[in-house]
Amino acid sequence: MATTQHPTTKDIYLAGGCFWGAEHYFKQIDGVVETEVGYANGHTAQPTYKEVCTDKTGFAETVRVVYDPSRVGLRFLLRMYFKAIDPVSVNQQGHDVGTQYRTGIYYSDELDRHIIDEIYAEVQSRYEEPLAVERQPLQNFFTAEDYHQDYLDKNPEGYCHLPLSLFKMAREARPEKD
Asked: Of the residues 18, 22, 84, 133, which is catalytic?
């Protein structure tokens, strides 16, 4: 799947466990114009799903979220992200276990770092234990195989670690602009 960068859009890369459900969740949010699942911040070239599942590539299953900042802001997207993950769980979301299921916010624009840090601190204030969510510049991103793209659209009864109520909440959320 070729990535498209629209001149008036921005992107953020969010790892939140299995990318099938995470992608479907973000697609529901008004102002998200494109999503793409793939593998981020690992140390091998051109990883495959099978390789990523070995826990030896360093990659996290990640969703590239392309959004229109005139319709939805990064703060809002990050608050929505934190509603869909267990931010203190290390290398696990739901029943999915392994380093590829770790949580992370990977940014391609250094100017986004202050917003990421602000929302991270906001969420951290609600927990005793430290958040397990990585905050790093995007080092690399490889698009996942075609059958992973839009997986839950193609397979409505497919596996998802997220409750269906989250998809409804995302559809009904009223985005805020930064």
From this structure: 18
> In angstroms, rounded to a whole number, what is the distance separating the alpha carbons of residues 78 and 178?
11
**Cβ density class 122-147: b for 16+ within 10 Å, e for less:** ebeeeeeeebbbeeeebebbbbbeee
Q: Is 75 helix (H, G, I), strand (E, B) or coil?
A: helix
Taking each helix axis as running N to C, give the angle between helix 164-172 and helix 74-83, from 0 to 180 degrees, rounded to the nearest 10: 160
For the chain, 178 residues long, give each residue's pLDDT as a single digit of tens: 455 555 699 999 999 999 999 999 999 999 999 999 999 999 999 999 999 999 999 999 999 999 999 999 999 999 999 999 999 999 999 999 999 999 999 999 999 999 999 999 999 999 999 999 999 999 999 999 999 999 999 999 999 999 999 999 999 999 888 8
Is 53 assigned a catalytic role? no
Look up the pTM and report it: 0.94
User: Would you say 38 and 142 are in contact if contact means Cβ atoms under 8 Å apart?
Assistant: yes
Beta carbons within 8 Å of 169's beta carbon, 6+ residues apart: 83
The token pair at 32 is 């998200």
Q: CA 148, CA 20: separation in Å to the nearest integer?
A: 7
